[in-house]
């Protein structure tokens, strides 16, 4: 429950939309990281486990295949990269404090929620070579 609404409600009001937009565009800030983490924490257990992260990366890979007509990315590998970049103490999950401490929140969260950030991360080697 993010806004004090009825926990059974799955609709987003305008305030919620504005909060989401601000959090996505300021995902380097601790308050935004905490807000986004709560949204992504599907089990509401205080961490994102590998299964949750993989589910999000699978969705991103499917969207990429649909929008671009191709995808050669492996969701398992991407999930492992996200966990590795956070330097999680437990290799099967990440906590919000680890995300903040890693200074990689913008990249890690971007991979999970932002199509353009995902593509930028995945194409970083080609861009560096150019």
UniProtKB/TrEMBL annotation:
It is found in: Cytoplasm. Its main location: cytoplasm. GO terms for molecular function: calcium ion binding. Gene3D superfamilies: EF-hand (1.10.238.10). Residues 28-63 form the EF-hand domain. This is EF-hand domain-containing protein. InterPro entries: EF-hand-dom_pair, EF_hand_dom, PPP2R3C. One of its GO terms (cellular component) is spindle. Keywords: Cytoplasm. GO terms for biological process: cortical cytoskeleton organization; microtubule cytoskeleton organization; regulation of dephosphorylation. It comes from the Eukaryota.
């Amino acid at each position: 429950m993010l806004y004090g609404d009825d926990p059974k409600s799955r609709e987003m009001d305008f305030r919620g939309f504005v909060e989401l937009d601000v959090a996505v565009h300021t995902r380097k800030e601790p308050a935004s990281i905490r807000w986004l983490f709560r949204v992504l924490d599907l089990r509401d257990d205080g961490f994102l486990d590998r299964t949750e992260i993989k589910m999000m990366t699978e969705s991103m890979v499917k969207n990429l295949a649909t929008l671009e007509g191709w995808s050669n990315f492996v969701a398992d590998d991407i999930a492992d990269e996200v966990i590795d970049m956070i330097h999680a103490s437990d290799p099967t999950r990440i906590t919000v404090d680890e995300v903040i401490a890693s200074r990689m929140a913008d990249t890690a969260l971007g991979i999970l929620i932002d199509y353009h950030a995902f593509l930028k991360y995945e194409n970083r080697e080609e861009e560096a070579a150019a």
